[in-house]
Every structure is written in structure tokens, then in C-alpha cells.
Specification:
This protein is α/β, with parallel strands linked by helices. It has nine helices and twelve strands. It folds into two domains: 165 residues, no CATH class; 122 residues, no CATH class. The relative contact order is 0.24.
Length: 313
Amino acid sequence: MKLWKSATATNAPAIVFVPDLERWLAASPGVLTALEKLRRVGLHDWVDHDGFGGQWLVDHAISPAPLWRALAQRPRTDEVLINVTPLALRPDLNAVWARPMEDFSLGDVIAVCEELIASTDFALEQDASGLFLVAPRRLGARLQPIWALDGLSLDALMPQGEKASRWVQFISESQILLHHRAKHTDGGPPVPQGLWFWGAGSMPDPTRLSPRVHTVAAETPELNGLAEALKIHRRSPHQHGVEAIGAGELIEFMPPSSGNVEAALHALNASLKTLIRRVGLGRLSGLELTTRHQRWRLTPKALWRSALRLSRA
């Protein structure tokens, strides 16, 4: 692994990761002064499709599937991996809503996957981190990530691109095959109603990647998988709150146990207020607020410039 000296220096960024921030803000758009200040003053950029894990940790977008695989074994750099996730479906008048399943009949899922890829050059592999299709080359299709299913109809998220038809066919046929199996199942774990294929990509050579942090405290598989591949120190995000974050750390914000969106936003806002004060005092040289989709970067210089503009207004 290529070492980046600032990953352990005092000028390394402190990165707060809030995977569901956009959904929280849409559900509870209240007045949150610290959060609004950081989003107003911070330098903003977007994630390259589904590659947030690599973008935040090594400044290089990396697709989710090889990062999930890295949790259990080192992925090869010459293969394309695709996540396979079983779904529960709920048809509505004008939409089909889907959610990932954790408890399901693995045997039925494997049998359906094997039937889908029987006449292709794909392979099916399973390990502790999940189910994967393995392709010998890039897909020629853009697959939507599993988190995009939250709040959007399945038909609005179908694969796109030159060779998307194969993946649309896989998704449609999986529903038919699983429905047939469910009708002939007597007891046992539930049979899923569909499969979602996502996260397609290859793992870059880890020796050519430069970590931006020395510690990752997260539950999100993409972040933990890349940390494992790069031998970055990992710990629980429950060990201490994000307000105690140090330079060169990425910490995933853990919401209060109440599960209330408003409570989560207010807790996050309180933590950001403390962190913005630390940036202003020069105790943090850089603060980044990140999600699966975007990032805001705050520096002492940006805070001072903002204060000057306000004083002249």
C-alpha cells in the first residue's frame, strides 16, 4: 500500500459520515443552524455514482461490490464483481416498492442465480460478505445501488446503458423463477420475490491507493471493506461520538436509539456545532461532512472568509 504521510498528520481531514442525511432532511426539514452553516460555507462536491467509499477514503471512486468482498477476502483486480441482494416486493397502483431481505431461503436464491447465468460467462460466488456474480469484463451497463431503492419505485431504477437489457432480463426473470419456487415451498425461510444486481466494479491495486485517514469507525460495509483492504485501523463507531473526532479519522454518525429522524438531526447538529467551533479555533485543520451522495469540506480559512463577508454586509 502506498502511504500518504498526511493520513497521520495533524492536517489530515476529520470526516463525519452520515449515510442517510438526505433522507432525514427530506423527512424533517427544520432549522439546524450548524448543519446549515457547514453546507453553506463548505466546499461542495458530488459522489461519482456509487463510489463513495473510495472517494472519501482514497480520493478515488470504487464500486461497492469489491469493497463488500474485501470484508471476507482480498478481491482480485482482474475481475468484475456484482452484488446480488434478495428483495421483498410490494406492488402498488403505479409503483413496485422493494426492500432488501436479511432472512431468506439461500438455497432458492442460489438455484435461481445459477439458472439465470447458465448460458453466460458469469460465475456465482458466495462468502461471509454476501453473494456475488463474477464477470470477466466490464458490463456496459449502469446498475443502481441498493440504497436507491429507498423511496423510489423499482421500475424507475432499472439498469441503463448499451448492454442494460441483459440485466433488466435478469431482474424480471428472477421474479418469475422465485415466484414459482415460493409456490412449491413448504415451510422454511421465506423465498424472496426478486433479486437486485448492483455495485458492479473491480478493486484497484491497493498498493497504488493513498489513504486519507488512519482510522475508520463505521458500520457501512463499503467503508469497512476498503479499510480492511488497506489495513487501516478499524474500530466501533459506538466507542465515542463524532464530536470527539480527531484529525485523520472517519467516523460514521450513529443516531440516537429512539430511531426518530428529528432527534437524529438535532443530535447531529449539536455535534457539528462543536466541530465547527474546533475548526474555527484551529484545533481541526479540516472537517468533512459526507453522505453516500455528496460532501461538504470546511477549513478555518473558509470560516474566516465567511465571517468577514458577514461583518461587511
